[in-house]
Amino acid sequence: MDSVRKDILGYLSAMHRVVALVRPVQSTFELGCAAEVFGTRRAGVPQHYEFAVCTESPGPVPTSAGYEISVTRGLSAFRSADTVLIPGWMPVETPISARVRRALLRAHERGVRLVTICSGVFALAQTGLLDGRSATMHWAHAERLRRDFPEVRVEPDALYVDHGDVATSAGAGAGLDLCLHLVREDHGAAHAALLARHMVLPPRRDGGQVQYAPPTPPGDALDGLLEWAETRLSTALSVEDFAAWLGVSSRTLARRFAEQLGTSPGAWLLSRRIAEARNLLENTDLSVEAIARRVGLTSAVNLRRRFRDQTGTTPGAYRRVFRGS
């Protein structure tokens, strides 16, 4: 009996312990992403993780789905964790308590990996551990994160960012990508691919791939110039054309773009061409060559190169995501 007990204890000690910190009102989907990857046992898939849930004040925790979950473990669960995961933090402006902040910082000091899904980054940012480092989250809250935590380098186009000791993900679905990435880092690509296959998910999406956020409308800045340019994307517009339309010098044009839009005229024009290409890929059957001409990028080769630079993927792959093969 003693030998069996030792074997069991040895097995448990070898397991990587993932502890999710939940709070009212907890997103069931974001918590479910972590539970599916780290906590669900599947026939034929080796189990390398032990998954647990904790909260600051143990007891019933309301969820976004309208029911409560009973959480019996408190912050002391961090002491045995190898990874602490924050599956969302809504509303994002909610401050973390001094107890939670201390517990996260102490865990980090012990070498515990801290991971966030979507809005969970707002809690982690309050610890200061993201200052001077890159992080991501859902595109809809990226500007808020940048404004509230100016020391954090926000990457709104990334699906996830992993620094080894801390990792952040974009929208809730990207939390699955990050969790599978961590499995790949911990136990290799083959094990992560096996797990993904059982979950009927693609084996991987690179962290640098762009979030599929809706294109930003041009707005009415610069005395109508942007609307004028929007109707002429298929033509060979140039920065000089922009300056001539406004009746200003190229230098003045560049200054006004920087002041009002935070970018250059050339970069803005390219972003609008790519935004229109995305729209056509999503909603038409036009060939890549035809789309390239429609958005003023001349050829399919040029569109593919520019599209990959801007979005991290190809026009064909982008279309398949939205319209299937």
Account of the protein in words:
The protein folds into 2 domains: 2-198, Rossmann fold; 222-323, Orthogonal Bundle (Arc Repressor Mutant, subunit A). The strands form 3 sheets. A 6-stranded mixed beta sheet has the order 2-1-5-6-10-9. Helix 2 runs parallel beside helix 6 (172-187). The chain has 325 residues and is an alpha/beta fold. It is built from 14 helices and 10 strands.
Helix content: 40-55%
User: SSE order in H/E notation?
Assistant: HEHEEEEHEHEHEEEHHHHHHHHH
- How does the overall form come out from the CA principal axes? globular
Q: Which strand order spans the largest sheet, edge to edge or round the barrel?
A: 2-1-5-6-10-9
**Would you identify the CATH H-level superfamily of the largest domain?**
Class I glutamine amidotransferase (GATase) domain
- Count of alpha and pi helical runs: 14
Number of strands: 10
| Structural class by SSE content | alpha/beta
Q: How much strand content do the residues show?
A: 5-15%
Largest sheet: 6 strands, mixed
Distance N to C terminus: 57 Å
Poorly predicted parts: 7-13
Q: Which CATH class of the largest domain is shown? A: Alpha Beta
Please tell me the overall pLDDT.
Answer: 87
Q: How many separate domains make up the residues?
A: 2
Query: What is the CATH architecture term of the largest domain?
Result: 3-Layer(aba) Sandwich
CATH topology assignment of the largest domain: Rossmann fold
Kindly provide the radius of gyration, computed on alpha-carbon positions and rounded to a whole number of angstroms: 24 Å
List its salient traits.
325 residues, alpha/beta, Rossmann fold, 6-stranded mixed sheet, two-stranded antiparallel ribbon, 14 helices, globular
